Amino acid sequence: xxxxxxxxxxxxxxxxxxxxxxxxxxxxxxxxxxxxxxxxxxxxxxxxxxxxxxxxxxxxxxxxxxxxxxxxxxxxxxxxxxxxxxxxxxxxxxxxxxxxxxxxxxxxxxxxxxxxxxxxxxxxxxxxxxxxxxxxxxxxxxxxxxxxxxxxxxxxxxxxxxxxxxxxxxxxxxxxxxxxxxxxxxxxxxxxxxxxxxxxxxxxxxxxxxxxxxxxxxxxxxxxxxxxxxxxxxxxxxxxxxxxxxxxxxxxxxxxxxxxxxxxxxxxxxxxxxxxxxxxxxxxxxxxxxxxxxxxxxxxxxxxxxxxxxxxx
Length: 313
What we know:
Elements: H1 2-18, H2 28-41, E1 50-52, E2 61-65, E3 71-75, E4 80-83, E5 89-92, E6 102-107, E7 110-118, E8 124-127, E9 137-140, E10 145-146, E11 150-152, H3 156-169, E12 175-180, H4 190-201, E13 205-208, E14 212-213, E15 224-229, H5 236-248, E16 253-257, H6 264-270, E17 276-281, E18 283-285, E19 293-295, H7 296-312
Parallel strand pairs: 3-12, 3-13, 13-17, 14-18, 15-16
Antiparallel strand pairs: 1-2, 2-12, 4-5, 4-9, 6-7, 6-9, 7-8, 10-11, 11-19, 15-17, 18-19
């Protein structure tokens, strides 16, 4: 009974994370939630972290535990839409939603729940009872569904990556958690965050706590995906360390090989610092749609591998 109550509590946090409106450029609400959560929970953690935030970090957030060697990067933003003119919508990142999808947000006139429409040329529009103020951001209305095996909800990418980092924080003795911005719309923060942790603590290796795809070679329920490459190619010798840790500790994993897609890891690779990185994440079906779906076994494997890697890298 106690074990099932714990699991329910854990996924309640994931649901809370999914419900926060924070598309790229509007991450402040997620940062505020995280700060509130961290201040409530940190006394229960093995090590109370140093919290680094402020104008020099924009809406990003860093937690430093002990004497760090490795960082976990988890982006806080989601895909969505920006209101333009005459009911037009412009994509934030690469949303993938069918006509009729419910979108939510708010402007100076109040809360918004509207409907997504497309014209014959596949341009996006909103359907609502009044004009929405230009510049307003809209995101998918959350429908969080949990079964015995699966979690399904908009924005598991990347609220599950944040959830993973917060679970690791509970027992983390040495490490850095980095919560970044703008990843879904071109990045822009991971590079300066990496520079800070490199200069401050000589941290030069990172795990990218993000969500990847179910594909023809990656299945639900077969373990966390360790990415050998996507659009970017990490250093094999570092990736092999993670694979060996998973093997030694009998943690279920799958090896991913893709030719497209990117993450904060791409920013680290394109930066001027000697950072090793690897994307390690649970696979989902329906990426960037209102119906993202992840197997619970893969979530647990992800958390377990991150716990183990942070103690052994």
